[in-house]
Automatic annotation (TrEMBL):
It holds the Pfam family Peptidase_M28. PANTHER family: METALLOPEPTIDASE M28 FAMILY MEMBER, PEPTIDASE M28 DOMAIN-CONTAINING PROTEIN. It comes from the Bacteria. The lineage of its organism: Bacteria, Pseudomonadati, Bacteroidota, Cytophagia, Cytophagales. This is Peptidase M28 domain-containing protein. Residues 274-480 form the Peptidase M28 domain. InterPro entries: M28_fam, PA_dom_sf, Peptidase_M28.
């Protein structure tokens, strides 16, 4: 069964009124706060840790409830950001003279009417079992347990027409990469078993996988997201893959059990939004070109409580990038560059880079006028002097000019960061280059890099709180981004695209 719903929250009309009022004040506010010319070569002194800390605790506090993409909380946080930009003195650069560019995201999930039974155990998706993909299924078959699924284990059992249960086993990479190893292994092995004749696959966690069952399965509850018509909106039928906790192992082993699974799928449409603002350039010709400072305002919202905390605030991911981008805006307002500075806070990044994908497809300035993208993604954790540029080395580097500008600027702030290069390599298990908002721009040959301080143990957990952020580090990375952008924004020539640039996937 497929159900389609078009969801616009009942309180959205009140939000629309607020947005309208903000549009009115944005125009008048900009007229009253035009950037001053200033006398300094740049305005790096406008980037202050006190501003960054204040904004961080506001945006990543419980008031905005984790800013989940497609929710009223994301919209409320977006209005707050736009109001800060108006007060700073930026010009609205979204649709229809506002700070906003609205778009729709489509969500596909497993319905509450879906049923899952193994023997006498009635299981609920999202609680004591998780179905890995929201696909239509109807299975009623004998369950066979095949140990850890080794060739020797499988040789002893006829799996054709059966639901196959197996215990997860295998030592993966370190914790920060284990999640991708876990899901990759489960999906790959399940595909092999289904190809060999299994009609369903049931995974039971081992001790290491169990911690991820408890921490990372909230995304499976949500389902899949995409822009309308995107690949994740397609609803299809397939043999189900089920994930169980380690506590299920003893009863799953029992012989003679029946596996019954009826999966129904439903689809929803939600509003999300990009926030777009600019500081016009001062050069009569170059002001028609833009250097784009990119970030995203959404996170994971309200989810299953961990240690009593159900609000996943996303202080590092990515309130840190947002407050940095606001600080960059203050500097460009104080001292405009020759080229225009464009600031884009992308919505629904956590749902699959949806806001940046939408903006690249429907930019509010001519796409060819964007000379470079500097993306801020998680810049507030780990060692104070460590950082990473995504897009620094081939095949991810698409502009040596832009990368060299960033490397030079790294030596000019008084805090020279030691740059990690491993996470930008194509064989890194996290595939970090492909997971932030610079990517859609790079795919259309716009010079693009991302500044990041990389993952940490609180990534996508309720422990990603503002109290854990190194605001001094955020300030220093912001100044580094500023000097890079200031350089590019004032050069006579725009940075060139590397000849033959092609991503590995």
């Amino acid at each position: 069964m497929i159900r389609h719903k078009y969801l616009f929250p009942q309180s959205l009309p009140r939000l629309a009124v607020l947005l309208g009022l903000l549009f009115i004040t944005s125009v008048s506010g900009y007229a009253q706060s035009k950037p001053s010319a200033g006398k300094s070569a740049n305005a790096i002194s406008a980037i202050r840790e006190s501003d960054i800390k204040r904004d961080l605790f506001a945006l990543a506090g419980d008031h905005f409830r984790g800013r989940e993409g497609g929710s009223l909380d994301e919209l409320k946080a977006s209005v707050w950001i736009a109001e800060q930009l108006r007060a700073i003195g930026l010009q609205p650069a979204g649709d229809d003279g506002t700070f906003f560019q609205f778009f729709h995201i489509q969500r596909t999930r497993i319905t509450e009417t879906s049923r899952l039974n193994i023997g006498s155990h009635q299981l609920t998706h999202g609680e004591d079992a998780f179905i890995l993909a929201p696909a239509i299924a109807s299975v009623d078959a004998p369950l066979v347990f095949v140990g850890t699924g080794t060739p020797d284990d499988l040789a002893k059992v006829d799996i054709k027409g059966k639901a196959v249960a197996l215990a997860f086993s295998g030592t993966g990479p370190p914790e920060l990469s284990y999640r991708r190893f876990l899901f990759g292994t489960m999906n790959r092995k399940a595909a092999e078993l289904i190809k060999a004749g299994a009609v369903a696959v049931v995974w039971v966690s081992d001790a290491q996988a169990q911690s991820y069952f408890e921490r990372w399965t909230t995304g499976l509850e949500r389902g899949r997201y995409d822009l309308p018509g995107g690949p994740n909106t397609r609803i299809f039928s397939q043999a189900p893959t089920v994930w169980l906790p380690a506590s299920a192992l003893e009863w799953v082993k029992q012989p003679g059990q029946q596996f019954t699974n009826v999966v129904n799928v439903e689809s929803f449409s939600y509003p999300s939004v990009n926030i777009v603002a600019k500081v016009p350039g001062t050069d009569p010709t170059l002001k028609n070109e833009h250097i784009l400072f990119s970030t995203h305002q959404d996170h994971d919202g309200v989810r299953r409580a961990v240690a009593g905390d159900s609000i996943w605030n996303g202080a590092d991911d990515n309130a840190s990038g947002c407050v940095a981008t606001m600080a960059l805006a203050r500097a460009f307002v104080q001292k405009p560059a020759k080229r225009s500075a464009l600031f884009v806070f992308h919505g629904a990044e956590e749902r699959g880079l949806l806001g940046s994908r939408y903006y690249v497809d429907k930019p509010t300035v001519p796409r060819e006028s964007i000379v470079a993208v500097l993306n801020a993604e998680m810049i507030g954790r780990n060692a104070p002097d460590s950082a990473c540029i995504l897009g620094q080395q081939p095949p991810h580097r698409n502009s040596a000019d832009l990368v060299n500008a960033a490397l030079t600027a790294n030596t000019l702030t008084g805090m020279t960061f030691k740059l990690d290069t491993l996470w930008d390599k194509p064989d890194h298990p996290e595939g970090w280059y492909f997971r932030s908002d610079h990517l859609p721009y790079a795919r259309v040959n716009i010079p693009a890099i991302a500044f990041t301080s990389l993952l940490h143990v609180d990534y996508h957990t309720p422990k990603d709180e503002p109290e854990r952020i190194d605001t001094s580090k955020v300030t220093n990375i912001t100044r580094w981004m500023y000097l890079t952008g200031w350089d590019i924004a004032n050069r006579p020539q725009r940075p060139a695209i590397d000849k033959g640039f092609k991503l590995e996937r």
